[in-house]
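Handout, section 3.2

Students often ask what a structure token actually looks like in practice. Rather than define it abstractly, here is a full record for Globin-sensor domain-containing protein. The first block is the sequence as you would receive it.
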Amino acid sequence: MQHISSASLEDLPSRISYLSAFLDLTPSDGEALLAAKPLVAPLIPTILDAVYTKLLSFDITAKAFVPKNTDYEGELVKNVQELTLEHPQIALRKDFLKNYLVKLVSTTDLTPTSLFWVYLNNVGIMHTGQPGFKHRVKRPELRVEYIHMGALLGYVVDIVVGAVMSMDVIDNEMKCKVIRALNKVVWIQNDLMARHYLVKNGEEGGEVTPPLSEEGESEGAKGGCPFSG
């Protein structure tokens, strides 16, 4: 029986090592995702439209897009009713999600010390409303509740799984490999979001783990989730 201490799970590589072992994440999963990249890439525009149509269909998720985005210099909207898929600020947010989706099927390194996990971890941190990223020092806090983050992740996975299952250019064995690999990585992403929202030690609010590195911050900040700002 392998011993895993609770304290060790606060360290990101140790946490990834445990999760990878539990989920049986192996290099072959990375190979499957990488092989799927040429097939998934053409679907990204359709996925982006579907995701943002969904996000803008609820005021509670749409309101995250009203404040000015960090890199946006154009005209701002005054309320959620003015938001559309064609609005320049939404187009900028689409770029963030595009980078995220490409990242999921582009990594060649799923080892516990990979910067890929730093990137996914920072995606979770940046939506908690806590300080830590230099690019948001002078910006209002960005707080997106975990329920919306989890729902969005589930919606994206559902779209991608449906797209993979409908592909005629790969056989069922390959479809199975891609979907299983995606499922493992996404569940780790879910944990790397949830860990920063969970209450620790019975307190009212847990402390958010700061970004792990300048390089990790850069990746997480620029290629993160559609709520990023």
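Discussion prompt for tutorial groups: The first helix runs from residue 12 to 23. How would you have guessed this from the sequence alone?
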